[in-house]
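Collaborator request, handled under Task 6.
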Amino acid sequence: MAEKIYVLDTNIILQNVQNIKNLSQDGANLVVIPETVLIELEDKKRLLDELGYQAREFARFIAEAKVKEVDHTSTCKVVKLYHGNYQIHLITKDKYETDIQSNHIAESNDKRIIEVVEEARNYYKGHKVIFVSIDVYARIFGLFKNIKTESLHEDRAEVPRQQFFKSLEIDSKEFSAKMSQPITQIDPEYRPDNFCYEFCFEDGNKSYGLVCNELLYPISDLDFRGMKVKPVNVRQKFFMRAILSNMYQLLVIDAKAGSGKTLIALASAMRLIDKGQYDKIVYVRNSIESLDKGADIGYLSGNDEKFRIYNMALYDTLEFIAKKSLKKSEHKEDAEAVSSKIIELTQKYRIEKLWPGEARGRTLSDAVVIMDEWQNSSENTTQLILSRLDNSCMAIIIGSNRQIDNPYLNKYNNGLTSLLKLTSQKHPELNMFAIDLQKAVRGRFAEFSERVYENKRR
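Structure tokens returned to the collaborator:
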């Protein structure tokens, strides 16, 4: 018999289907899934966001499993499945004590799941049964019934203190002599995640450089000539220069709201296409939206309208670039002229919108792939998208760990963080770049909200 028996709450699967395999420990432990969890996952399958993706991944996982036995006791039915080395049991009770109340359906479901945990303790008598849930309230319901409960244990110590931007005071003559040498000759404490350097000289002047393969590449304002959208602060310059240099295949950006991350990414990608280095832009947005039922994407007809809700950041950015293009024209504020310019830009740069559910089975080539709001994505969604890209692509992952909307993820376990952590080492397959954009440039309201609310949470 299994060493431990884990009964899973719905949120464990919605966070990441991989949790089933992790908890199973290659078959050493038994994973139990209550009927109510199956019902909740079935309800999520229609969603077009990260939660819907995880629900569909679970459906595929279960569809590939094989039935070993169906055991019907006097109080419950147990469907015993196996999937390779993994053992999964599905349990439903013949009669529940908890009535489903439509106005308290989440609480009713939690209590029904706890009933199945109690049933599991009786069914697997003599074995250690543990209820696993991210939801503290569900765990409290379990404790009321004297059930052993656990959450997922993200090891927060694994998140390194990274320094993507370094400022060094250095003698200008010494710097000039070492400019063409490896960065370790300038900074003996260099680490792989030190991508951006600010060198401060004794006369008050400064110089800036990007590091790729331990070599330093200078940055100057001449790098941004001809750009309709120009960087407005030092970190934006590093971000734009990193894209335009085409030295990095995977760029990861953790940025505050209003820091210009989507604008810089899109404008720079357009320049690369103008130079013939790529053929198109693919925009992927993975977001958990807070929508009224009437505006829910499931109630809208047609893909364009459904995805418009998800892609408003892209449309707003295109509108800004369109107005910049029309700046010298009397049609700048003409809505029809702006709309026509957006269509022209979309066609010229072959801008495609993609959501994760469409990616399976596709191969993306000659594309700059911008993956937006990636703090709301899991690691296996990240793997899904990145595995669709061939060697002719560049990937730009942008997000903000200050704005996580997915209730099943946090700043320690989402897809954005998993990639940021990977910058602490070199990778033989590709060159990575990362930076954090710390200054809001959207305007006074973004600066106000940042100062008043974000600093208050510290």
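The cover message to the collaborator said: "The chain has two domains: 5-153, 161-457. The first strand starts at residue 5 and ends at 8. Please let us know whether this matches your experimental observations."
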